[in-house]
Amino acid sequence: MRIGAIEAGGTKFVCGIGNEEGKIEDRISFPTERPGETIPKVISYFADAQVGAIGIGSFGPIDLRPDSPTYGCITTTPKPGWAQYPFLGELKRRFAVPFGWDTDVNAAALGEAAWGAARGLDSCIYYTIGTGVGMGVYSGGRPVHGLVHPEGGHVPVRRHPEDDFPGICPFHGDCLEGMAAGPALEARWKAPGHQLPPGHPAWSIEAYYIAQAVAAAILTHSPQKIVLGGGVMQQRQLFPLIREEVKRILNGYVQAEELLDKIGEYIVPPVLGTDAGLHGALALGLQALQGGSADFAACGSS
Amino acid sequence: MRIGAIEAGGTKFVCGIGNEEGKIEDRISFPTERPGETIPKVISYFADAQVGAIGIGSFGPIDLRPDSPTYGCITTTPKPGWAQYPFLGELKRRFAVPFGWDTDVNAAALGEAAWGAARGLDSCIYYTIGTGVGMGVYSGGRPVHGLVHPEGGHVPVRRHPEDDFPGICPFHGDCLEGMAAGPALEARWKAPGHQLPPGHPAWSIEAYYIAQAVAAAILTHSPQKIVLGGGVMQQRQLFPLIREEVKRILNGYVQAEELLDKIGEYIVPPVLGTDAGLHGALALGLQALQGGSADFAACGSS
């Protein structure tokens, strides 16, 4: 069975066709313009693909409440043309197949759980740290949402004692995203992250903020794996710094060997790399095909 | 069908017998002493009760991993005699019925979801703020655990600008529990909370810390209800203070009417009051009886 996957990012769309084993067999990518330009390209790509289901991992915020009149819409984005856009509805009108629908970051968490770093596990958390900071949560075989969906990029963080940067989040100033997203890093140091050498003080301050969110996620979600992706996390020197800071914050309180002795295997980069989101969209499509759930945990551990 | 319920607290045990509708028909309570004194009282209470299942909500930390050799044990508590005690195993040896087993706070979250403030909802978070701070998470029809179980009482918090209290958590100093549990309140103000008048500055500082954890939980879990229980939350003047502070932190970022217009119905006391834990243990027993899950959401909304 061929399954369609749409990773709808704020900058670019990636559409792909894959199979039930998580193999992407074909893909296409184009910039995210207004819906009137972008959605016809999506429709055209899948027009003759004969997919049995389509999964969408979308930039947000999005409406995920099945009983809501605006279910399937992007909600309050400043992106021109996309606010209140009935993304899912437009595609459903065109393709009579089951659809999976979730945030791009929840999709990435699901992708890593299905075929990546959290394969065979029952829970994981995915942070993407790039232009913004996003959080996806996978628990009990499904991406987590409730009131809306996780927006863990905007949690309050403690200020680093040597950091007087005011933060750039338009809503919260110095929340995690305001202090640690790529643009914050660049504004603080007057240079993009990839121009700062691995030994630069930027990285320990960056790790200080990310580690607070990771430690809080461990304490409040107790996930079996933490996956850190996105452009900023390409700076691999961050991983040991974050792991040490998480251990320092937790201070041995949570008694689990994954934290005490094996944290290098617990806080990890995405195995699927930049493809986590597209694989996640594929997994969402697969879950939709199977009536709302696919037991990736059982499948992965076999 | 009669179902047994055990709320195993660090100070006292409450055992009860209830039915599938959440009605507690009988109960007994005794102080938590060493296991050698306490467990025989539990066994004696249920000896002739002919219950079809037993649910246990236990003080922790506890081992919840079914594949662990110490599954069913209390793990690292300083409470004399209870560290590494095989709580679940001791009762299983005596009663050949299905057992539910989770933390006392996860049980309280489940109880409120089954028959209380979150009835009919798919997700809720329960904080108990008393001698310590505990967090229970209910999502997708089940209490959440993974690596271990939520320990959300120990998240880092930003210090209130007018507060120089160092915090009393032996692991973290000024984490949420270290700053906001009942003993922290008493140490900071040299008087127990119930002796401080409602207009005392203690309460806005207390709300400041609790609201940070609540706002972070909204951003990272997106629960449909937040229930705040425990001795400190008997001070009902805290609720409006916490709600206002949560709105201030989120600053309109999460677009949900529950937060924007109806926060008074969203951040609430437990409907089951001090009985949330015992009802939760009953619900754990009922889930065990039904093979690991009971669809309280469907049941509550009918």
Task: Give an account of the 3D structure.
Two copies of one chain form a homodimer. With about 300 residues, chain A is an alpha/beta fold. The first copy, chain A, has two domains: about 5-105 and about 275-290, ATPase, nucleotide binding domain (Nucleotidyltransferase, domain 5), CATH 3.30.420.40; about 120-270, ATPase, nucleotide binding domain (Nucleotidyltransferase, domain 5, 2-Layer Sandwich). Chain A has helices at about 35-45, 85-95, 105-115, 175-180, 180-190, 200-220, 240-250, 255-260, 265, 275-290, 295-300; strands at about 5-10, 10-20, 25-30, 55-60, 100-105, 125-130, 135-140, 140-145, 225-230, 265-270. In chain A, the strands form two sheets. Chain A has a five-stranded mixed sheet with strand order 3-2-1-4-5. In chain A, helix 3 crosses helix 10 (about 275-290) and helix 6 packs across helix 7 (about 240-250). The longest helix of chain A has 21 residues, at about 200-220. At the A-B interface, strand 7 and helix 6 of A face strand 7 and helix 6 of B. Chains A, B: Its EC number is 2.7.1.4. Chains A, B: Belongs to the ROK (NagC/XylR) family. Chains A, B: Keywords: Magnesium, Metal-binding, Zinc.
